[in-house]
Design goal:
Blueprint: H1 2-12, H2 21-27, H3 30-73, H4 77-86, H5 91-108, H6 116-139, H7 142-174, H8 179-235
Helix pairs in contact: 2-8, 3-7, 3-8, 4-5, 5-6, 5-8, 6-8, 7-8
Length: 238
């Protein structure tokens, strides 16, 4: 029967070549293996950044909401300051701490008490420095996701091209271009592209998510800066 003859032929040829993932990686060319290892490392680092930054950004937003509620509800600036010191992950609370520290410094300096404009500029600079520092903390490690999202597919494509080139060289030397011979080599080459896409897709999605959340945080910091300066101008600097 045809089926029996086919099985006999495969058995005589040594059976079908394994195409499981472990075999593809093990049989790939060393350069392709290096590309796969690099992409796997980028993927794992990206997953770590995604988990860490998700927790960090959410905590920052939650603590900022807690601080703003306390800031607008309380009339005791000392109490607000103590509360802000406990909310270390909130960029807005840290801006308040910086502004409060600068205000206390100016209040204790007799030479600066009559210079209303100079005092306001000093407080504004302190708020801007804190805003820049907190923004840098929020944005830390996020550029790696952008790099992974843009570079990983091309790195995987490089591994695929190299793998296919060496596959054709091996096929040319063997003088046999049957599917059983060509299939594993093409599969291991294309697997590098697949890893590149697996690394890139979550990185791009996470980068867009974090960019949007950080933009919201920066907008809230800018709004708080103006509100804080207005309060300082009306109640503390005359």
């Amino acid at each position: 029967m045809p089926a029996a003859s086919t099985l006999t032929g495969l058995a005589a040829a040594g059976g079908p070549t394994e195409l499981d993932i472990a075999s593809l990686i093990r049989q790939a060319h060393p350069i392709v293996q290096g590309v796969m290892l690099l992409l796997a490392g980028m993927f794992l680092i990206g997953i770590y950044i995604i988990i860490y930054k998700t927790l960090y950004v959410r905590r920052a937003a939650r603590e900022s909401a807690q601080f703003l509620e306390s800031f607008w509800r309380s009339r005791d600036i000392e109490q607000i300051y103590k509360h802000a010191q406990m909310l270390r992950h909130s960029p807005i609370s840290q801006m308040f701490v910086a502004g409060y520290t600068e205000l206390a410094k100016l209040a204790s300096d007799e030479r600066m008490r009559g210079d209303r404009e100079g005092n306001m500029e000093s407080i504004q600079r302190a708020l801007r420095r804190a805003e820049t520092f907190e923004t840098t903390k929020l944005e830390s490690m996020v550029p790696f996701l952008a790099t992974t999202g843009s570079a990983a597919p091309f790195i995987g494509l490089f591994g695929t091209v190299v793998g296919i080139m060496f596959a054709f060289q091996e096929i040319s030397g063997a003088g046999n271009a049957t599917l059983q011979v060509v299939g594993p080599h093409i599969a291991e080459a294309l697997f590098a592209t697949a890893i590149g896409l697996v690394a890139a897709v979550p990185a791009v999605m996470a980068y867009n998510y974090f960019t949007r959340r950080i933009r919201v945080q920066r907008s809230e910091m800018e709004t708080f800066e103006q509100d804080y300066l207005n309060i300082i101008k009306r109640h503390f600097l005359h």
